[in-house]
Amino acid sequence: MHRATTSRRARQRSKGQAAVEFAFVFMFVFLMFMALLELIFLMHAYNTLADSAKEGVRYAIVHGTGNSGCSGPGTTSVPCAGAPYPLVQGAVTKFSSLSLHNVTASNVTVTYPEACNTPGCLVRVTVNYSYQPLFGMGWPSVTLYAAADGRIMN
Question: Is the Cβ–Cβ distance between 129 and 49 less than 8 Å?
Fold first, then answer.
């Protein structure tokens, strides 16, 4: 009889140990899953910013030549409403908002390094965005930067 009670106690301890080991492994796997999911969201945010910058460049290179709507340097016939190149910035913010990211015009920088808006001139669009982690959990916020440049077409 002594032997039966000893084996029963050993089995109960073994079940308790398995439960504790399962809890540790489950927590580790859960945290790894959350970190992977957060990384996926971060990559999506960066890809959205990069595509938004490309969309701004595309708008600027198509609308640069002879445009009177504040899309490039030398467009002084229409007031630019206080912001340089608001139409290019608007194209960037519109594209990013379609991807569920709120990039304001203050986060978009449009530069014309060669100071011209004729065919062959360079235009550069830079976007920054303060990414806030979705789950929190002590992860820091990260500022993402994306830039694109291109040459103005005919």
Answer: yes
What the block records as the tokens of 54 is: 């490309």
| Nearest residue to 128 via CA among 141, 143, 140 | 143
- Structure confidence by residue, pLDDT tens digits, 2-28: 565 666 776 666 677 888 889 999 999
CA distance linking residue 57 with residue 71, whole number of Å: 10
Q: Judge contact between 94 and 82, C-beta under 8 A.
A: no
What is d(CA 137, CA 48) in angstroms, rounded to the nearest whole number? 24
50/112 Cα distance (integer angstroms): 18
Q: Which of 20, 24, 52 is nearest to 129 (CA)?
A: 52
For 119, residues 6+ apart whose C-beta sits below 8 A from its C-beta are: 65, 151, 152, 153, 154
